[in-house]
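seq as requested:
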Amino acid sequence: MVSLGCPKALVDSERILTRLRAEGYAISPDYAGADAVIVNTCGFLDSAKAESLDAIGEALTQNGRVIVTGCLGAEPDYITGAHPKVLAVTGPHQYEQVLDAVHAAVPPDPDPFVDLLPATGVSLTPRHYSYLKISEGCDHKCKFCIIPDMRGRLASRPVAAVKREAEKLVAAGVKELLVISQDTSAYGTDWKGRESKFPILDLSTELSKLGAWVRLHYVYPYPHVRDLIPLMADPSNGLLPYLDIPFQHAHPDTLKRMARPAAASRTLDEIAAWRRDCPDITLRSTFIVGYPGETEEEFQTLLDWMDEAQLDRVGCFQYENVEGARSNALPDHVPEEVKEERWHRFMEKAQAISEAKLAAKVGQRMTVLVDEIDEDGATCRTMADAPEIDGNLFIDEGVEGLSPGDFVEVEVDEASEYDLWGKRLG
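struct tokens:
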């Protein structure tokens, strides 16, 4: 299995592999030992499409028997036009079709006495944290995004199913649940006749009681998000004071051209209210620079907004056309060299904010989660750090007896632009 793209695609890969393991298939760590290769693709940006095509080509060269699935699978002609020898192409979360393709390529030969599946299924992440997908699809119509075309409208999983999966993961030793979807705060709003107006509040409350860290990703800043903040401020439960919110821009005209809510000033008020009710909250976001029509004035507004918002964790992308996106047809596309220059200015601003915020943590005591142990010490994460996208806290000495998945108390004694160092307490 070659899995590309976002954590949501990773969850799809885990589900496919779990089903295959249950049917008696073994998973090969390399091309040479495999009877077939599944490539789970990403199709969000043209650069991601190119990476997916390269991965398919590599699998064909190294193995020759390739089944393609995932977001780019929504465009089968695009794939077969470049690689006509693939065995099959299926779209995103089409698990049954993937299994049918595998059955055709490599007929199953299960042995129930040998092929015992672990209760939690197959995980592609370390054993102590796991992604928990709560819905598929999205009802937004952002002009730069084709995810609703690929993955459909919002379809939320039942609360009982999500909670059951979460309980099994925690029982198997998972210490952190990373809640993901295309629009987490809209979870359950697609259900007709629902008892709760905003089911994400009830689900978060239930997950917070399981004894693990719970981290929310892809949260749109709807007004009801403020009702999550008191839960995050309560240290007795597991819902971390952390919000991953895709703001994308701050100038109202840019947001309007993106077809996104254009209330950047009210967003600053919301951020202030969140921090008032939960002073330890960590805010992460992503932004796009060089969107079609973005003027220097609009970009400067974004920089000024960043000065006010003081976000803790920030990512930034240079706009690029995506086949099928409505933003391609917008006038006044920004020259590549201007996008590059704005990206550097934005990241310089974000880095300075991050450096100052982390420097202020020196001397603080906190609980961290150990991710990895090696000869240099322990690589850990604080409550403010999601795996793979945020920073780390490093312990250079005194790590004897620690293992991945352990919680440990530290005192921060050094900071850089994105990472912390600490000494173990007790």
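Residues 112-118 have pLDDT under 50 and may be disordered.
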